[in-house]
Structure formats: structure tokens, C-alpha cells
Amino acid sequence: MNKKVLNRENLKAACALRAQEMLEEAEALTETEEMQELSPAFQARMDQIFREELSRRDRKTPPRRRRWAVAAMIVMGLFSWLFFDSGARAAVMNWYREMTAERALHRKAEVSEQVHSFFKTNPDGSWIYPDNYTGLYDDGEYLVIAVKQGLDYADYEKIAAKYSDVCRIKEMPYSLNEMMEMAERAADIMLREGIQISSYAFRASIGRIVFTTTEEYMQAVRQVLVSCNLMDLAVVENQDAP
Q: Which of 39, 89, 160, 225 has the most Cβ atoms closer than 10 angstroms to its Cβ?
């Protein structure tokens, strides 16, 4: 009679065969009414076997796979937490909005810095604006670069393209230099006629020159603006209004 050599391969095959036989016997038992409750000793032994098998598999799992498994468990736990906890969802959304708003403010500041890099200064420190520039304002969502229509403003378009998430271009009929020149002519007339104004400035967000004065002089200011053909380009505000 030929005897099989006892080696690792034969031993594994024999164990596998016996395990299959035990599994089939267990399945046969479940199909009968003679299945009895397992003894505590047997259950304890099976628990030990399961723990040893899980520990063996964990040792064979590469560190990278274990890290990914842990990360996946954390992500799934986070999503489960957010799904069931409305307060947690609100807190996460607030955090996301704050983070997004802070990033937008930072990028808008970069846009403003690049736009101002095109300005020059007079000896007295006042600004000299480019002829194609009209203004810069925030409409609540985007930082808008107002430019004079009909002139080349490729430099501003490059900025808007780079910061397209926070920046837009808007064309206007006049440049800031032209608007301020018209405002100065009207202000000189008011000064000669004794009409008092507190200030005047171009407000790019509305595309108008804003003259500020008291209730007493508002009508006089409007009359000067009409004579200078500026009523379509200017507004008068009452500095005393609440």
C-alpha cells in the first residue's frame, strides 16, 4: 500500500476536506428538527477560532489597505452622523460657507490689488486712472471691474478670466477720468454761485456721480446739473437724511 508523504500541501488538503465534510454535516443538521442548542463550551471554542482567523487576516492585510479601510469607516461614520443629525448638518454647512466666503474675500483682494497696479500717481499723491477704467465695486457676489466701452481692456479681461469665480467685467459709456472731469465742472459752477455741497464722487455700482448736500441746496444742485447736461449721469443725496 502506498503511503502519502505528510507534508504541508497534503496536510492543507486534508484539513480542507475535513472542513468541507463538517460543513455539510452542519447543513444537514439545520434541515432536521433534531438540531439542539450548542453547548457554551462549543460556542466559546468557535468564538476563539473566529477571533484567531480575523486576527490572521488582519496581519496579512497590507498597511495601506488598513489605512484605507479606516478612512472609509470614518467617512461612512461621518456621513451617517450628518444624515441623522440635523444640527450637525447645519454646523458643517455654516463652516463650509465661512470657509468659502473667506476664500472669496482673499481672491477679491487679489483682484483689487492687480487692478490698482495699473494706476499711477501724481506728485501730490492723487491717482491717475487708465483711460479704459471706470470703477471697481462689489455687487454682493462678484467684484466687478467697470470699463469704458469701445476701448481695449484686455488686461482686465485677463484678470477676470483668472479669477472667474469672483470677478466680472462690465462696460460703461464713460471712463472714470471723464466722469470726474464732468463732476468737477459742475462743482466749480456750484462754488461760484455759492451753492454748498459736502462732497461729490463717482459711484461705480450705480454708474452715477453722487453729489451730497443739505436739504437747503438740493434743488439748486439739481438746476446746475441740468444746465451741465448731467442729470442722466448724476444723483443728489441729502446728507441730513436718516
A: 225
